């Protein structure tokens, strides 16, 4: 075997390995705490959205567009009222999708039909599940907050966390 032939064979082998590696690479999920199902509790709505946001930020290559983010979030709405809301949203989405597909279109397949943005979905979620007046709710909790047997640091931390949502400047 000549040096030139060996070099060409080696280049072919490297090229084949790179192709196999590229084809074999799958998008891997980053290790972030798996979400709990959302059950409609207004007290847990903000926490649920924060968990969803953290998960989506950590796995942005798995959920790159609004549709994927919405479907991911809906998949964790399995309990009681949240499940009913999820079903209504899913039914509305499917109906809108069928209507859009029925319209004559010359768009390319990669041009995804956009029915709702992620921000619109979040607004709908907040309207349905978050307390109507977060600020007043936080103020009432602050007013009734007692140290009891808590360590002073724990009491101060709880007070500060409530003050974030209380809508007071000082």
TrEMBL record:
<dbReference type="Pfam" id="PF03732">
    <property type="entry name" value="Retrotrans_gag"/>
</dbReference>
<dbReference type="InterPro" id="IPR005162">
    <property type="entry name" value="Retrotrans_gag_dom"/>
</dbReference>
<feature type="domain" description="Retrotransposon gag">
    <location>
        <begin position="107"/>
        <end position="166"/>
    </location>
</feature>
<protein>
    <recommendedName>
        <fullName>Retrotransposon gag domain-containing protein</fullName>
    </recommendedName>
</protein>
């Amino acid at each position: 075997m000549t040096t030139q032939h060996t070099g060409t064979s080696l280049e072919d082998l490297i090229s084949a390995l790179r192709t196999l590696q590229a084809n074999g690479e799958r998008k891997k999920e980053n290790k972030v705490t798996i979400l709990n199902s959302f059950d409609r509790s207004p007290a847990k709505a903000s926490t649920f959205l924060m968990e969803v946001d953290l998960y989506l930020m950590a796995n942005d290559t798995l959920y790159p567009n609004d549709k994927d983010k919405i479907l991911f979030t809906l998949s964790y709405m399995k309990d009681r009222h949240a499940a009913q809301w999820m079903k209504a949203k899913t039914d509305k989405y499917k109906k809108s999708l069928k209507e859009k597909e029925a319209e004559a279109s010359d768009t390319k397949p990669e041009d995804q039909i956009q029915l709702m943005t992620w921000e619109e979905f979040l607004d709908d979620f907040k309207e349905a599940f978050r307390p109507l007046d977060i600020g007043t709710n936080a103020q009432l909790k602050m007013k009734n907050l007692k140290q009891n047997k808590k360590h002073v640091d724990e009491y101060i931390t709880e007070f500060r966390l409530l003050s974030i949502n209380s809508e007071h400047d000082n």
